[in-house]
Amino acid sequence: MGLLSAVGVGVGAIVGGGILVLAGVGLAATGPSTMVAFALNGLIAVLTALSFAEMSSAFPESGGAYTFAKKVLAVRSAFAVGWVLWFAYIVAAVLYGLGFAEYGLAALDGVWR
């Protein structure tokens, strides 16, 4: 997988899971202040990307956040970081599935009526 493909996968996961599925819920609950939340989240995402870029240049190995934690922290702490990340990915996958199910039910409900 090249750089462009990897960026495409990352952007697709973020856009599909966040903006398209949950923007309506956020706007309905909080109104225009949702845009402020999106801007702050964008800033946090940029800072996170910059820190990952810095760590990737400092430690040019595969493994992502686990490798960074293993280089900087104790082995037990790195192990915990790996498991927490794995659990977070599972939770994200479940939330993506719930969002897909909500949209699917709404689409099928319109077709069957």
What does this structure look like?
- With 113 residues, the protein is an all-alpha fold.
- Helices cover 88% and strands 0% of the residues.
- It folds into 2 domains: 1-58, no CATH class; 61-113, no CATH class.
- Helix 1 crosses helix 4 (75-112) and helix 3 (65-72) runs antiparallel to helix 4 (75-112).
- The radius of gyration is 18 Å and the shape is elongated.
- The model has no long low-confidence stretch (mean pLDDT 81).
Kindly state the mean pLDDT as a whole number?
81
> What's the helix count?
4
Class of secondary structure makeup: mainly alpha
The count of strands amounts to 0
- Overall spatial form: elongated
Oligomer: single chain
Rg for CA atoms: 18 Å
The main β sheet shows up as: none
Taking the alpha carbons of the first and last residues, their distance comes to 44 Å
Question: How many separate structural domains?
Answer: 2
Summarize the structure.
The protein has four helices and no strands.
Fold topology:
Blueprint: H1 3-30, H2 33-58, H3 65-72, H4 75-112
Helix pairs in contact: 1-4, 3-4
List its salient traits.
about 0% strand; 2 domains; about 110 residues; mainly alpha
